[in-house]
Design brief:
Layout (H helix, E strand, L loop, with lengths): L1 H4 L5 E6 L4 E6 L4 E5 L5 E4 L13 E6 L5 E5 L2 E6 L4 E5 L14 E6 L5 E5 L2 E5 L5 E4 L14 E7 L3 E6 L4 E5 L2 E5 L11 E7 L2 E6 L4
Length: about 210
């Protein structure tokens, strides 16, 4: 196993799918799957095959409420068919609202209702895999919009409040239809450049370029 993983310089995320597999998202080296039963490793990389993973830069990964695996890349999102070992890709379609808001995706969240939130370079796409996309982005003329469009982290707290981290504009806390903006000027956040957001018990952890 060490020999096959020595080439991996940039590991972005590690995920246990609860099906006996560990998934490793990387930059430049695609997606790795480690089977825990026999310690074998599969490496999925982009190719000319339309059912391959869309990019070798993989950023995040999750299982939806139906057990389907979703991967965020810099060329859209995709889901993985465990039986056929193929990927289905979803991209931004020109002049089509019912598609991703941007192909450059950074993070994924499955909320308590089963909807998937996709953080991208141009805002957030919210979707049910069986229905339409809804988009959220920054609007300088609307105080109740996102403070920035480059989304690096999304976390759901207490099954109702979303914490959203932006690249240079701090944190957005969404509760229903209300968005509260947090930054280093009006809160104890040490930097407005958010790298990731997660939580444990009653705590929300905000990772920034200056620390936690």
């Amino acid at each position: 196993m060490k020999i096959q993983l020595e080439i991996v310089k940039y590991i972005i995320y590690i995920y246990d799918d609860s099906k006996g597999n560990i998934w490793i998202c990387t930059l430049d080296n695609g997606l790795f799957k480690i089977k825990l039963d026999d310690k074998s490793i599969d490496n999925y990389k982009n190719s000319e095959n339309k059912f391959s993973i869309p990019s070798n830069n993989t950023k995040d990964i999750l299982l939806d409420s139906k057990g389907k695996l979703w991967i965020a890349t810099d060329k859209g999102i995709c889901n993985f068919d465990y039986e056929k070992e193929v990927f289905t890709t979803y991209n931004k379609e020109p002049y089509e609202n019912n598609s991703l808001i941007d192909d450059e995706t950074f993070c994924l969240l499955k909320d308590s209702s089963g909807l998937i939130w996709v953080g991208t370079y141009s805002g957030i796409s919210l979707f049910n895999p069986n229905s339409n996309f809804i988009h959220f982005k920054s609007n300088p003329y609307d105080e109740n919009s996102l403070s920035g469009n480059i989304i690096h982290g999304i976390y759901e707290y207490d099954n109702k409040t979303l914490w959203i981290g932006t690249n240079e504009n701090g944190v957005n806390v969404i509760n229903g239809d209300i968005i509260k903006h947090l930054n280093k000027e009006n809160s104890n956040i040490i930097s407005d450049l958010i790298e990731d957001i997660t939580g444990f018990n009653n705590y929300v952890f905000i990772g920034t370029n200056e620390g936690l």
